[in-house]
Amino acid sequence: MSVGGTGKRRYDSLRRVAQAQETRAVIARAARGLFVAQGWAATTVRAVAEEAQVSVPTVYAAYGDKAGLVRAVADAADISADPSATLAELEDAAADPARQLAALAAYDRRLFERSGDVIALVREAGRTEPALAAAYEEGRRRGDDTRAQVFSSWPDGALRPGLDVRSAVDVYAALCNVDVYTTLTVERAWHPDRVQRWWGEVLARELLAR
Which pLDDT score is estimated for 1? Predict the structure, then answer.
């Protein structure tokens, strides 16, 4: 009997965690939609609560004050790009730097395709809102750190001669960013698949030893 009771309590706990995560996801989606539609300044915590169909205290409990909602927008962007799939691809291609670069490019394609509007919004609004500027910088730093970890895991001689890890991260950032993606897909009418393939090819050419 005690085993059954323990199991039930365990499942109840897991259920509460799952419900809390789903609530955060709903709030994140609502915040993202409002920020994109009407801007940071015009979006209130109450409006986000109404859009998410939750109470205002629930929003505060999940993300804190309005500045904390920036984390909700960042969460929504990250989730949309499916980082777990990228991790699996990186692990599967651990012995092949070119395939790992292709996996990173695929992640950025998904991120910019699904959340490029949010990234642009946070960056632009960050010029006057310190909380948004901090969120944008944090996202950029996380991306740099991930690439540095991947590049550092490669065997000696994998990087192009004369290129260190930090410089490789800089080159990656110069090529794979939301501005390049927008220019190619909007102004030049490239399909996202073409952008992703080109990124994989040019990254391998620029970063890897021949």
Answer: 43
For residue 123 the two structure tokens come to 């960056």
Residue whose pair of structure tokens reads 């629930």 in the numeric block: 58
Global pTM exceeds 0.85: no
Q: What is the phi/psi pair of residue 159, to 5°?
A: -75, 150
Determine whether 207 is exposed, middle or buried from the number of CB atoms within 10 Å of its CB (0-12, 13-18, 19+): buried
DSSP for 6-59? HHHHHHHHHHHHHHHHHHHHHHHHHHHHHHHHH-TTT--HHHHHHHHTS-HHHH
Say whether pLDDT at 16 is over 70: yes
| Helices vs. strands in the chain: H and E counts, helices first | 10, 0
Q: Cα separations (Å) of 36 from 104, 117, 120?
A: 26, 7, 10
Strand partners, 208: 159
Compute how many other C-beta atoms are within 10 angstroms of the C-beta atom of residue 2: 6
Separation CA 160–CA 189 (nearest Å): 32
- What pLDDT, on the 0 to 100 scale, is given for residue 68? 81
- How far apart are alpha carbons 43 and 33 in whole angstroms? 10
Q: What local confidence, expressed as pLDDT, does residue 208 receive?
A: 98
State the first-to-last Cα distance of the chain, in angstroms, to the nearest integer.
65
Q: Give CA–CA dist 28/25, Å, rounded.
A: 5
CA dist 149 and 139 (Å) reads: 15
